[in-house]
Amino acid sequence: MLKKNINIGIVGLGQIGGRLYKEILSKKNDIEIKTEKKVNIIAISAKNYKKRRSFKFSKKIFYKNPLDIAKNPHVDILFELIGHPNGISKKVVEIALKNKKHVITANKALMAKNGDYLSLVAEKNRVNLEFEAAVGGGIPILRTIKDGLATNKINKVVGILNGTCNYILSEMHSLKDSFRNVLKRAQSLGYAEISNPKFDLNGNDTLSKVRILSALAFNKKISTNKCLMDGIEDIELEDMAIADKLNFKIKLLGITEIINNKLFERVHPCLIKKDTYIANINGVMNAVILEGEPVGESVLQGEGAGPGPTSSALMSDLLSILRGNIKYPFGLPNNKRKRISSYDQKLYVNSFYLRIQVKDKHGVLSSITKTFTKNKISIKNLIQNPDKKNKKSNIIIITHENLEKNFINLLRSLKQNKFLLKKPTFIRIEKI
Amino acid sequence: MLKKNINIGIVGLGQIGGRLYKEILSKKNDIEIKTEKKVNIIAISAKNYKKRRSFKFSKKIFYKNPLDIAKNPHVDILFELIGHPNGISKKVVEIALKNKKHVITANKALMAKNGDYLSLVAEKNRVNLEFEAAVGGGIPILRTIKDGLATNKINKVVGILNGTCNYILSEMHSLKDSFRNVLKRAQSLGYAEISNPKFDLNGNDTLSKVRILSALAFNKKISTNKCLMDGIEDIELEDMAIADKLNFKIKLLGITEIINNKLFERVHPCLIKKDTYIANINGVMNAVILEGEPVGESVLQGEGAGPGPTSSALMSDLLSILRGNIKYPFGLPNNKRKRISSYDQKLYVNSFYLRIQVKDKHGVLSSITKTFTKNKISIKNLIQNPDKKNKKSNIIIITHENLEKNFINLLRSLKQNKFLLKKPTFIRIEKI
Asked: In Å, what is the CA distance from B213 to each residue of B123, B131, B210, B256, B263?
């Protein structure tokens, strides 16, 4: 990066791309002061040229085919903001890297799936592949792990990593409103996708971020292990109310840790004591807690999504490249990052919250508790809420700690119980 | 930094220096993997050669005069860990930079006083001057401002920046123990200096950190303005108990912000609502809250002091240099960092808590309230706690918002009140 004028291409001009475009133009001076480089956006590409946008651009810099930007010899740095896990996103990034362009992406799905391959391509071509915006929105968590906490031995990372889910759970809790209503509101506010919110709600989005965090925190290859992944779709207002009474909040957490040299990654809703730090991260905020040696516990918190925080992260990647910080995408050479095998999740020890909806009939309770005994799971608390009018009853159970394996068997047995009205809701209780 | 073998000198082998020495030796492999450099500690210096230490070193690498390390042509990177604001610390850093060595320091007092000059020397000699460990211990806050949030327009930074003070205030609150007792415990645990804890307790240490944060966050020269600075020495257990009843906690905050293009830096104890994030940072933890555009609010929290967190920060500086990230110490060239004039603190609008110890005599209350009226300060709450036995009384007052100017006049008038038994305790109420 010895030359003074640096040319930028942006592929994808949605909410994020649009905000970035304006941000770069408005910060040109600031960028030049901090890096001694003049930046120019010389190529942009979007699905729809004619879409109404809050900014103008010259027709001359618009490319119909994003691959033409990836190959354009005048482009030095390319932003990939399309967001597919494979397909055109992968192609654009791959070709740009092979053409010795630095690439900046906000695409967690792409990085979680193809990050190892793409970082190798970047390494071979001696260019940067930066992806700060892929995890934690405005929180500079990847940079903190790679630089700020470099050489720390990190043992565990716990995070609220999906703003949509956290917004929904927070609103359900504070407004005592249903999942469905809050989801609708989240969609109208732009916090949740309208056509297909599933990727956020089922834990998949969080899992992509967890996989990226594991690779960085533990200096390993990105895991492709099968993972414990549950979403928040089954959580009902009733669970919120019960959790509240029991002094818990419900949060969707992404957790990754090394146990006996094995990697244990998981994403699931958790019951967490109300007075903990992580229980009080509300709305679209994200937070990450790291445990490292020698630093101790580090916490980072910030806005997790949206054009503002995301463009802050993209700009930090841009400045890193302009300052000439050529780095390995995952902090060390690809061949030094080893695979790590998966911790057997069946050995995970935890206690559980279960809400079991049954017919309000004689013998139900003994039938249910018998199933627990048969699966070697002992009950700590049991609350029965009969709904005589509708001839049904809610049995709420907090268990003692037990192996995940036994819980899986328990759930399987419960499903066969003749009194059961619907699939039980179960939430793991997390001690944080 | 093209050569493979990098030689390190460490000046100062106290708790921090000792831990760093061991940390570098134990992480040599990790450093080589991440940076492709082999590091060797070839020179160390300490006041006392014979002091008992938890590690061994060869006599050959020991220098009596630290300036010989600063001048040693074989040393590439020098750590300054003596900790004086001027004198030998300044000399060692200056000479090392002039001899084209990169310098890493944990010395906030040095940076707050001489940071502008030393960063200019570094810039001229094209070497790095890194000081992550000077602020926030293990929290990579400086790196986050320079890199992670680069190009954000930061408007305000609020922090708990002194672990000693936060430990004392937390312990006074939770154990209902006196300032004096808790200070003794802090000293025995190594959280407070034994010979002279004043620099921590009177706010001076926090102010040094605030000055460094201002310069970085707002891209300005380090301010030498006269500052609003109060310490925690006057806070008594009684204030803790009253604050608790009023739903407040007492915290020592460092705050810097830009108001109407002027810089307003301040350090003082604050009453903060119990349910806020910052009120719940306890013990030796530090925390920093940044408000930036476009990122929104960012929070970083971590251990604020001690050899572990400090050596984590020092190591991150080392890796940054080894990776070849040659940067301006304050993120941009010295001549682009302008001076900024000081906000007139008399215009600061705030409400106050006051505890006024008076003789328990007829007419006291009307005499005190009259002084408030005369100074145009209106009272929101007033609590009177008479202590008949000792013929004294505590008058606790929460005021409405008013100008700092009027409070200063009020305090001056109160001191002349004939009923007064001692200087009133006053604490600003901070809305965060």
From this structure: 19, 11, 5, 8, 12
- ipTM greater than 0.90, yes or no? no
What pLDDT does residue B52 have?
A: 86
Give the count of alpha carbons within 13 A of B233, CB side only. Answer: 12
Which residues of chain A neighbour B151 with C-beta distances below 8 Å?
23, 27, 30-31, 34, 312, 315-316, 318-319
Taking an 8 Å cut-off on Cβ atoms, the answer to whether B303 and A292 are in contact is no
The residues near B137 (Cβ < 8 Å, ≥ 6 apart) are B163, B286, B302, B303, B304, B305, B306, B309, B310, B313
pLDDT band at B138 (very low <50, low <70, confident <90, very high): confident
The shares of helix, strand and coil residues in chain B, as percent rounded to the nearest 5, are 40, 25, 35
CA atoms within 13 A on the CB side of B136: 31
CB atoms within 10 A of CB B406: 17
Tens digits of residue pLDDT in B139-173? 999 999 999 999 999 999 999 999 999 999 999 99
Structural domains of chain A, with CATH: 5-134 (3.40.50.720), 141-303 (3.30.360.10), 345-429 (3.30.70.260)
Chain B residues with CB-CB distance to A309 below 8 A = 294-296
- Which tens digits make up the pLDDT trace of A162-193? 999 999 999 999 999 999 999 999 999 888 88
d(CA A47, CA B4): 48
Q: How many CB pairs under 8 A join A and B?
A: 162
The structure tokens 């809305």 sit at B431
Q: Could you tell me which chain A residue has the CA closest to the CA of B307? A: A294
Instruction: Identify the residue whose tokens are 């050596």.
Output: B311
How far does the CA of residue A107 sit from the closest CA of chain B (Å)? 18
List pLDDT tens digits, range A44-86: 999 988 888 888 899 999 999 999 999 999 999 999 999 999 8
Which one, of A209, A221, A220, A81, lies nearest residue A136 by Cα?
A209
| Bridge partner residues of B102 (DSSP) | B77
Is the pLDDT at A386 greater than 90, yes or no?
A: no
> How far is residue A121 from each of residues A103, A320, A329, B199, B415, measured CA to CA in Å?
11, 19, 10, 52, 73
Q: Rounded to an integer, what is the distance from CA B249 to the centroid of its chain?
A: 19
B13's CB contacts (< 8 A; 6+ apart) are: B21, B44, B45, B46, B51, B53, B81
**Mutation site, A132, A295, A314, interface B, largest B CB count within 10 A:** A295
Helix %, strand %, coil % of chain A (to 5): 40, 25, 35
DSSP A12-65: --SHHHHHHHHHHHHTHHHHHHHHS-EEEEEEEE-S-TTS--SS---GGGEESS
From the list A144, A295, A333, the residue facing B148 with the nearest CB is A144
Q: Which residue of B has its CA nearest to A308?
A: B294
Q: Is B300–A303 a contact, with Cβ atoms under 8 angstroms apart?
A: no
Q: A30 and B151 in contact by Cβ < 8 A?
A: yes
**Beta partners for A403?**
A349
Answer yes or no: A209 catalytic: yes
Out of B209, B220, B249, B251, which one is annotated catalytic?
B209
- Closest partner residue to A149 (CB to CB) among B33, B140, B332 is B140
**Model pLDDT, residue B386:** 84
Write the burial class of residue B349 (CB in 10 Å: 0-12 exposed, 13-18 middle, 19+ buried).
exposed
Q: Quickly count helices (H) and strands (E) in chain A.
A: 14, 17
- Residue with the two structure tokens 């409405």: B400
Token code pair at residue A405 = 């394996």
Is residue B132 within 8 A of residue B140, CB to CB? The reply is yes
pTM greater than the 0.90 cutoff: yes
Cβ contact A120:A335 at 8 Å: no
